[in-house]
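stage 2 :: seqdesign
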């Protein structure tokens, strides 16, 4: 096992899925991080709550972990919308004093050009689809799902307004990563959205293009040594297995990517 990180790691999930005892959002990643000296905690916020409601929940969770562990700060790794939830907690809810670092994985910091196009559909249609999704998410355990407001946040205009209201905190170290699939059929779960996003924005991970997720200390587009690239689902180990045993440029297992993040934070004293 590697030397422990100075601060515990809080994993913050994205939209449409919840942290679960029996079906972990993060696959094999938490166990691998623990093997490499990380103390792991989970966000547990609503899968489709607004940034305000989820941010408030995360703020309480952060204080709970700080009290439980006695740590002065946390390292946060957030996937997709979870990065926006955390930025709201850090900036608007003034949690920056408890956060050493925020690493965002395919977080739509700048919104989606594709969502801009989809929001041109009649508003009643968007609200109907969002309302149906909210019903399902309440059944799955969400306390305050609001898919309509979440979806609007992903527009480029709303994203930039969010950025103005939630600037980076000077005491927090930020870094961001992007991913792309090599072909739209690389991940059949992502085939339809990847095709649509590719039409409007070019290469993407099935949901987001690199331009949407680039943020402070952008580390670039992470590649795999397989011929399929890395999808939005692959980023959190949905398939629970390595991409390939082939060695070459890029990563062959998504868990190696997270271990590298932990190693980087460790070297920076976090």
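stage 2 :: out
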């Amino acid at each position: 096992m590697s030397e422990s990180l100075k601060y515990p790691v809080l994993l913050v999930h994205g939209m449409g899925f919840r942290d679960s005892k029996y079906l972990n959002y993060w696959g094999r990643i938490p166990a691998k991080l623990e093997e490499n000296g990380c103390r792991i905690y989970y966000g547990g916020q609503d899968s489709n709550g607004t940034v305000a409601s989820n941010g408030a929940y995360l703020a309480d969770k952060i204080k709970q972990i700080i009290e439980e562990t006695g740590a002065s700060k946390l390292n946060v790794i957030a996937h997709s919308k979870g990065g926006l939830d955390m930025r709201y907690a850090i900036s608007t809810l003034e949690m920056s004093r408890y956060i050493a670092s925020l690493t965002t994985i395919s977080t739509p910091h700048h919104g989606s050009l594709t969502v801009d196009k989809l929001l041109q559909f009649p508003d009643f249609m968007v609200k109907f689809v969002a309302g149906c999704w909210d019903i399902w998410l309440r059944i799955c355990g969400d306390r305050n799902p609001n898919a309509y407001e979440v979806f609007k946040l992903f527009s480029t205009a709303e994203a930039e307004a969010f950025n103005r209201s939630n600037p980076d905190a000077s005491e927090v170290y930020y870094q961001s990563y992007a991913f792309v699939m090599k072909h739209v059929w690389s991940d059949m779960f992502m085939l339809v959205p990847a095709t649509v996003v590719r039409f409007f924005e070019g290469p993407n991970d099935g949901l987001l293009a690199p331009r949407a997720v680039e943020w402070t200390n952008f580390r670039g587009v992470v590649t795999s040594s397989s011929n399929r690239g890395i999808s939005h689902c692959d980023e959190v180990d949905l398939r629970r297995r390595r991409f390939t045993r082939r060695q070459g440029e890029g990563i062959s297992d998504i868990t190696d990517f997270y271990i590298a993040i932990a190693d980087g934070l460790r070297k920076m004293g976090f």
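stage 3 :: structure notes
- The beta strands are 9-12, 40-42, 74-79, 99-105, 173-179, 218-222.
- DSSP finds ten helices and six strands in the chain.
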